[in-house]
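PROTOCOL LOG
Step 1. Enter all chains and additional molecules of the complex.
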Amino acid sequence: MIVSLKKVAKRYTRGKETVEVLHSLDLGIEQGDFVALMGPSGSGKTTLLNLIGGLDRPSEGEVVVAGEHIDRLSGAALARWRARNVGFVFQFYNLMPMLSAQGNVELPLLLTKLSAAQRRKNAQTALTVVGLADRARHKPSELSGGQQQRVAIARALVADPTLLVCDEPTGDLDRKTADEILGLLQTLNRDYGKTIVMVTHDPKAAEFAKRQLHMDKGTLVPGNMP
Amino acid sequence: MKYFPFLWATLWRKKARTIFTLLSIVIAFLLFGMLQGVNAAFQLGVDNANVNRLIVTSRISLTEALPISQRQQIEAVPGVAGVAHASWFGAYYQEQKNFIFAAPVEIDDYLHVVPEVKIAPEQVAALKQNRSGLIVGAETMKKYGWKIGDRIPLHSTIWVNKYDGTSDWKFDIVGVYEFPSDRSQENGAFFNYALFDEARTFGAGTVGWWIVSIKDPNQSAQIAAQIDKLFENSQDETKSQSEKEFTQSFLKQFGDINFIVKAILGAVFFTLLFLTGNTMMQSVRERIPELAVLKTLGFSDGKVTLLVLAESLLLCLIAAALGLLLADLIFPLLKDTIGVVKLPTRVLVSGGLIAVLLALATGGLPALRAQRLVIVDALAGR
Ligand SMILES: Nc1ncnc2c1ncn2[C@@H]1O[C@H](COP(=O)(O)OP(=O)(O)OP(=O)(O)O)[C@@H](O)[C@H]1O
Ligand SMILES: [Mg+2]
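Step 2. Run joint prediction.
Step 3. Record the structure below.
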């Protein structure tokens, strides 16, 4: 079990109001799985994904990912843990506009002890995996949406994490480009053994996953429970 | 530093704005270098002042003469090691801008009291033999291309020579003096008081001021008080000061340079603080999502804070280095005006320190903002 959530609740406080976004949620994901997380807007998908990726902490319950109780880690330790264990892919790519594709992909490696030459080589390898080796010198503004998302995937891969979390990775792409990106994720899952958790609104995209989970109003809809 | 390429790219993400900010800082530091240089040049005179000497002037004003008869009384004060005198001559060579600090002295006394002045013994002898002899500072000698043996006129803005009725006093150059401990004092000349006193149309028997060397610098205040006491209630009351106090009060005539410099620089840097601070703040605000991504990738809060600070440090240090370099190149051009050749290292060092402070002051708030940024909120645009 690479992801294990037990009785997880998440509450946000806005002023005097407190809203509970996730209610006593249980979830387990096996190593090597490819999970599509679906559900209406506001149902708490992003919130759940952020907890799994260690970007946020639960208000209650326990979150164990890649063998670590990440709800108990301090801020700095959690940051270190993320760098080693999780790769993130977002809907709007979130690349650094002033860096080339190569520079963007090398960014996570600045946190490792690798030499400059090693960093360059690993970034090139990651760009080759996503099929963009020939665009290494291009800035994000010189790339198409699909290409930018490939760079983002290369950045998520470069430190070789076991887990990839993707929040609507094809939400901003046309059908054909989306299918290419989803195909790439499928390859990463199948051939490279990456565990992937992907939030999507798109039923077609969800079909690329091995299984689908549905959320509604802060809980997983029964029938999909593992 | 492996973060340098990243920092460099970040710094230049908005080229026009960075260049504008950079230029403002460069100009501020150029100004800093020049003004502090001038200030330091004046201060140098104060710092180089000898603690073993008193300057005795008329109580009424710096330019009021004193009777030569005061000499024996001053010499008799316990603790006094030697007494010499000098007078204003107000000399220039050919043109008013070629000011030369020429002073009539009794050379043996003068060298006894001001031993920093170095003259070859045979040239001292030559001066004493030649009534219209002149010993010229090495710097002045070089500036006008004079040689020993030249006969040159010095125009006095104060004194008329009664033998030929003109203000152009003719001198024979018989020697060169050096002032190794402060080369800026080599822009001057000495000539015989005997000639001066005899040939001037008024003021015979007076001197401009006394230079008194004392045995123990700790006693300078008491001795100064004792000398002034001697002439209290006489026609020629005196004001005795240590050489340092004297130099300071002399400079005060031009206004409080130190204060003016500090005031101007204060205003400049105050403005700069807001300008640069605003640039940094804006740049961080635009980059909130990017900073959130850095944190997502595993950069800790501390690291992100340091990156923002390093960016402002990079900007300020580059600009300060350029500004100070420019000042260092331009400053020697002022040599003729203020007499100091090189921008003092201490000005460069303090410039560097100010650059660091500026960077911390302007980068501090943005860095704090970056540190406090919560990933999930920033990613969601909250
Ligand atoms: N920091 C926060 N403060 C207050 N409310 C929050 C915060 N984060 C999330 N929420 C609320 O929690 C609920 C779930 O948000 P979440 O972003 O997880 O939904 P989602 O399923 O990802 O929706 P979408 O499909 O639109 O992305 C929403 O009602 C949202 O307004
Ligand atoms: Mg969402």
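Step 4. Note key features.
Helices of chain A lie at 45-52, 75-85, 101-106, 116-129, 145-157, 175-192, 203-206.
The interface with chain B takes residues 46-47, 50, 53, 55-56, 75-76, 79-84, 88, 90, 94, 96-99, 103, 107-108, 110-111, 116, 155 of chain A (CB under 8 Å).
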